[in-house]
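Deliverable D2.4 — example input (structure tokens):
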């Protein structure tokens, strides 16, 4: 059996990597996590009082285009059908998101066909903007001012804590509108919710004789000496003790409301109105529509800058961050027996299916390099740091 490896982080990245190395090459790993639970930010736990499955670090809906990733997660948990149908409360009423034919017809008081709506939105679009310089210009170029102000301006401003004119145009890469009545939030062919939550799923992934999990254990560099290799899935700047500075993130926090019955009739309700301090409310019992609960828990979500003691959630990736990231990547590439993967170590926003797919691919690449005697990869190929 090869030397044991140390895997820092028991989220999807660390767990899938440990399992792949164990199954493909009989590698033994110790998986450590600073928290007192596995599953990282995907952690779910039943609320002791109501029995509702709570997504502790924000709502998580599984969706993917990759058949192999879908087959992979289904090996470890039964998945129940769940389609995220988001709504938005505005001062003009409640609308369906993402903006679709129903939203357009309701918003403009029309009953247009798909082709008529497409033409109508093309007329609304600001054609004077040739090269959008920022998020706002990109949105105006795609959909015009009315829909932008109703659904994007306030939400984006609250989520990122700055005016949308200060954000890069690339954040809105595609036309954020559908010309059909499809109100499924995601386009992916595979979608669902693990029947007993994400923590039970990740516990099954980690349940292998070659894998030992140690919780409440923060990584220290001295630990590396006892292992053949270290895979680090924590924040990249923290690994280097922030010696070049801090990468910037937005964080979120919640106000929990318990009541009887049904709070809002849907899992996720957005509040794009810039005058309201929160961005959305999620009601977690609607993520398990096959379960019955008399009480309910709703979480009002707020965004803010990430302080030193906050959990980093959304990488901001401003120009200064990208420069800092490149400098940290240079330091990382100089490490001899450490690899960096996952959303924090590569400083990218990644959905669950992306980190799972990348951990599967990374295990293959690392094992191939190891067996051929080549230098093992520092980052996943797609991270392109
Ligand atoms: C609010 C929110 C909602 C989201 N919703 C969705 C969704 O609906 N669908 C979807 O697909 N994805 C969603 N995501 C993305 C999802 O959370 C990530 O894809 C996933 O958590 C990434 O897994 P990871 O293992 O890379 O990182 P993490 O889950 O963050 O795991 C990293 C682990 O490393 C540990 N760690 C860090 N540093 C150290 C250290 N020094 N020593 C020891 N342990 C350490 C941490 O404690 C953590 O447990 C959402 C993310 C957020 C923020």
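Example output (designed residues):
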């Amino acid at each position: 059996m090869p030397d044991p490896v140390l895997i820092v982080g028991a989220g999807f990245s660390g767990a899938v990597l440990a399992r792949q190395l164990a199954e493909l090459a009989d590698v033994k790993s110790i998986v450590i996590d600073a928290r007192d639970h596995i599953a990282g930010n995907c952690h779910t736990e039943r609320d002791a009082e109501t029995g509702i499955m709570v997504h502790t670090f924000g709502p998580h809906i599984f969706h993917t285009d990759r058949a192999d990733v879908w087959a992979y997660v289904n090996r470890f948990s039964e998945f129940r059908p769940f389609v995220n149908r988001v709504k938005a409360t505005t001062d003009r009423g409640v609308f369906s998101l993402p903006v679709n034919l129903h939203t357009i017809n309701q918003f403009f008081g029309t009953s247009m066909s798909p082709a008529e709506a497409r033409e109508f939105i093309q007329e609304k679009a600001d054609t004077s903007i040739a090269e959008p310089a920022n998020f706002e210009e990109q949105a105006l170029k795609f959909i015009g001012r009315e829909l932008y102000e109703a659904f994007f301006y306030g939400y984006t401003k609250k989520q990122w804590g700055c005016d949308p004119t200060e954000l890069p145009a690339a954040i809105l890469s595609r036309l954020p509108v559908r010309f059909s009545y499809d109100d499924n939030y995601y386009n992916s062919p595979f979608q669902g919710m693990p029947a007993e939550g994400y923590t039970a799923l990740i516990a099954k992934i980690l349940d292998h004789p070659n894998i030992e999990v140690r919780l409440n254990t923060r990584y220290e560099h001295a630990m590396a000496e006892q292992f053949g290799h270290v895979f680090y899935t924590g924040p990249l700047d923290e690994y280097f003790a922030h010696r070049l500075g801090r990468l910037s993130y937005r964080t979120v926090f919640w106000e929990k409301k318990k009541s009887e019955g049904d709070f809002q009739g849907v899992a996720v309700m957005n509040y794009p109105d810039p005058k309201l301090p929160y961005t959305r409310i999620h009601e977690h019992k609607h993520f398990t529509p096959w379960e019955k609960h008399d009480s309910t828990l709703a979480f009002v979500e707020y965004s803010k800058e990430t302080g030193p003691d906050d959990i980093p959630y959304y990488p901001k990736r401003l120009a200064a961050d990208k420069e800092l990231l490149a400098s940290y990547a240079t330091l990382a590439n100089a490490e001899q027996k450490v690899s960096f993967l996952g959303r924090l170590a590569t400083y990218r926003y990644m959905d669950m299916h992306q980190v799972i797919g990348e951990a599967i691919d990374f295990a293959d690449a690392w094992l191939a390099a190891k067996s051929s005697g080549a230098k093992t990869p520092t980052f996943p190929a797609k991270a392109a740091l």
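Residues 5-78+191-247+315-372 form a domain with the Rossmann fold fold (CATH 3.40.50.720).
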